[in-house]
Design a protein that fits this description.
outer membrane lipoprotein receptor (LolB), chain A, two-stranded antiparallel ribbon, mainly beta, globular, about 240 residues, single chain
Length: about 240
């Protein structure tokens, strides 16, 4: 999975700062004001997405995605042929693939350090709404101006490490996220919106790779602030009981 499928959120409230915001901190404040009130954003302890995922518009699979503070996530993708789980538990990450027709047939893989870093960046993004990247030893800077879809935008460059970089383009007039690009050249776009507890989420997120392949996540619902057990994220036993 992309380590950033980038499950980005959009906005609810009016812009808090004038359109002349210049620093990265000021632009982040504007973008967060679009996402929702500070009390709503700071009150998020978990985000649960339910929907489908498909590649190039074909063969949709059921999708269940959980992010939980401080740094846990679990992706589950289900089809008649395969159940795939990708999970992060702080500094441990794993992937398990199971044959739904025979649950005794499964394969468990422990992810490496670079994959874990990407998952941690993704979890942070989805739980902290743009703020606090420095706690992951990352940084944000203004990357200059750009025109996207005919809109005057500002580029904010979120660097989690030398090889994990997200460039986000925000409409200068509204601080709306127009698109995101990864360091690998994947272009991420959002469509539609839904409101949950004072925060607006995208209904669809499309990830278009340089090869032209497009991975699309469609969300049927978003649930906030559920509590999930530690066992949902912990590395499963390496041997069947």
């Amino acid at each position: 999975m992309k380590a950033r499928f980038a499950l980005a959120v959009a906005a609810l409230l009016v812009v808090a700062l004038p359109a002349t915001a210049q620093t990265a901190e000021q632009w982040i404040a504007r973008a967060r004001a679009r996402l929702g009130s500070e009390s709503a954003l700071q009150g998020v302890t978990s985000v649960h997405f339910v929907g489908t995922i498909e590649v190039d518009g074909a063969n949709p699979r059921a999708m269940d995605i959980i992010f939980q503070k401080p740094m846990q996530q679990r992706f589950t993708f289900t089809s008649p042929e395969l159940i795939e789980v990708l999970a992060l538990d702080e500094y441990d990450a794993w992937q398990k693939r199971t044959n739904p027709k025979n649950l005794t047939q499964w394969q468990l893989t422990l992810l490496d350090a670079n994959q874990i870093k990407r998952l941690r960046a993704q979890a942070w993004d989805n739980l902290n709404f743009l703020r606090g990247i420095e706690k992951l030893r990352g940084s944000v800077k203004v990357g200059g101006d750009a025109t996207v879809d005919g809109l005057a935008c500002v580029k904010l460059v979120f660097s989690y490490s030398d090889n994990i970089v997200l460039t986000r383009y925000y409409d200068k007039a509204t601080a709306r996220l127009v698109k995101t690009e990864t360091e690998a050249g994947v272009e991420i776009r959002e469509e539609g919106e839904m409101f949950v507890n004072g925060i607006r989420f995208a209904r669809k997120v499309s990830n278009r790779e340089k090869s032209g392949r497009t991975v699309t996540l469609s969300f049927e619902k978003v649930i906030l602030n559920e509590t999930f057990p530690a066992s949902a994220f912990a590395v499963p036993p390496l041997q069947a009981n």
